[in-house]
TrEMBL record:
Originating gene: yigZ
Pfam families named among the record's database cross-references: DUF1949, Impact_N
InterPro entries tied to this protein: EFG_III/V, Impact, Impact_N, Impact_N_sf, Impact_YigZ-like, Ribosomal_Su5_D2-typ_SF, UPF0029_Impact_C
UniProt organism field: Lachnospira eligens
Protein name as annotated: IMPACT family member yigZ
The family this protein is said to belong to: Belongs to the IMPACT family.
Length: 212
């Protein structure tokens, strides 16, 4: 399952009709409804505001609306873009400004699909994984070694604070934690260890960086 870490906007035009798609991460149906209403107010002069969203660990909640377009030509194609790309807890709203020319069933399906794909292409997505958020306190002699181990084992350095010593804020998958702890134990004879560790679900984005 993929998470929308940061949403996106895309646009598709066909025979002077503009299709503006907006994609968001959502936590529940109330949040979805609120965003849909906000977009209806923003695009108050548009002909249609069609949408689809999925919720739940396995996207078991699925909703969509054609908002006045012919049945099956808008909401369902938008939903298929979301589910086809394995996006979870995701809302996509496609606003249509009518250009004066009817597009037909096939044309509408293509337009709503392309608009949703355009928006999704600029979103930042993440793959769900199990991992650990933790802190590591070291003296300056170990900074380069810690940075090297992190780079070699896909450990994300969230933040680094420099004071009398150096504190790394880290996010890592469970296998990488074992590697890091083994290396730190060997280098410091057991004196350096992770603190404030917290197991959690996290996401690895398309750049390889872990995030909450």
């Amino acid at each position: 399952m993929k998470k929308i870490i940061s949403g996106g906007t895309g646009e598709f035009t066909d025979k002077k009709s503009r299709f503006i798609a907006n994609i968001y991460h959502i936590e529940d149906e109330d949040m979805a409804v609120k965003i849909i209403e906000q977009l209806r107010k923003k695009y108050w002069d548009a002909r249609h505001n069609c949408y689809a969203y999925v919720l739940g660990g396995k996207s078991e909640i699925q909703r969509f609306s054609d908002d006045g377009e012919p049945s099956g030509t808008a909401g369902k194609p938008i939903l298929e873009v979301i589910t086809g790309n394995e996006c979870g807890n995701c809302l996509c709203v496609v606003t249509r400004y009518f250009g004066g020319v009817l597009l037909g069933t096939g044309g509408l399906i293509r337009a709503y699909t392309n608009a949703a794909k355009e928006a999704l292409s600029v979103c930042r997505l993440g793959e769900l994984t199990e991992g650990v958020h933790a802190f590591l306190d070291v003296d300056y002699n170990y900074v380069g070694k810690v940075q090297y181990i992190c780079a070699q084992n896909d450990i994300t350095i969230v933040n680094t604070e420099y004071a009398d010593g150096v504190t790394f804020e880290l996010m890592m998958e469970n296998a990488a934690r074992n590697v890091l702890e083994k290396n730190m134990t060997e280098m410091s004879s057991g004196k350096i260890c992770l603190r404030d560790t917290c197991s959690m679900q996290m996401y690895r984005d398309d750049t390889g960086k872990l995030c909450r």
